[in-house]
Amino acid sequence: MKYLNYVYEVDCRYFRIVNKNFEKRFLHSFFRKITHLGSASFTISIVLFLILFSTGSTKLAVIASGIALALSHIPVMLIKKFIPRKRPYLVLHDCHVTENPLTDCSFPSGHTTAFFSIIIPFCFYYSVLAIILLPLGFLVGLSRVYLGLHYPSDIVFGCLLGSLVGSVSFILVFQ
């Protein structure tokens, strides 16, 4: 139990380090925009768009991304049901949160999971894209902490889960 308390304290400390910059105009504008890259509407739309307009083996990478996106939502929903962790803005005092915040459970970050699940097949298929896509994924995750919606551990787990599902989907499609 002491270990879990220590992990939570570290989680809160890093949450506050990121979240305290909430009032900085440039960061606020940047993170409010970039967070939408992990939203359901964006991730589903981009996968559907790419499925319609890609060809050849690129289409296989897109299909792997689509499968990963669909499959990644299942463990996220199950984990949120069985580990009902409250969002940081509901628990911590003096933290900042975006307008109209989500009220469902915090763990794991669905935005981060979704984004990593769709980019990993592309990172495998077009390895040079990893230079752009992986930092973008980390920024999506960071935006969720900045906006007061997730603890850092929610992001780390979402990144790992999305990467795992994206990797498995890539392997299944390209076997």
TrEMBL record:
Q: Give the record's membrane topology.
A: Multi-pass membrane protein
Do the record's keywords include Iron?
no
GO terms assigned for molecular function: hydrolase activity
Q: Where would you find the membrane-spanning parts of this chain? A: 34-54, 60-79, 123-143, 155-174
Q: What is the lineage of its organism?
A: Bacteria, Bacillati, Bacillota, Bacilli, Bacillales
Any coiled-coil ranges, and where? none
Q: Name one Pfam family in it.
A: PAP2
GO cellular component terms given for this protein: plasma membrane
Q: Which UniProt keywords apply?
A: Cell membrane, Hydrolase, Membrane, Transmembrane, Transmembrane helix
Q: Which PANTHER family match?
A: DECAPRENYLPHOSPHORYL-5-PHOSPHORIBOSE PHOSPHATASE RV3807C-RELATED, SPHINGOSINE-1-PHOSPHATE PHOSPHOHYDROLASE
Q: What is this protein called?
A: Phosphatase PAP2 family protein
> Where is this chain's protein located in or outside the cell?
Cell membrane
Q: Where is the Phosphatidic acid phosphatase type 2/haloperoxidase domain?
A: 58-170
InterPro entries reported in the protein's UniProt record: PAP2/HPO, PAP2/HPO_sf
Species source reads Ornithinibacillus caprae
